Amino acid sequence: MAKRLTLPPEERAAHERALARSRKAEERCRRRDAGRPEPAILDKAIADALRSFLSRDDHSLTRPLNPAALLRTVQEHLLLRSVRAEKAGREPVVYDPRQVVGALKERLLTPAWSSRNSIHS
Question: Domain limits of the chain?
Answer without folding.
Answer: 37-108
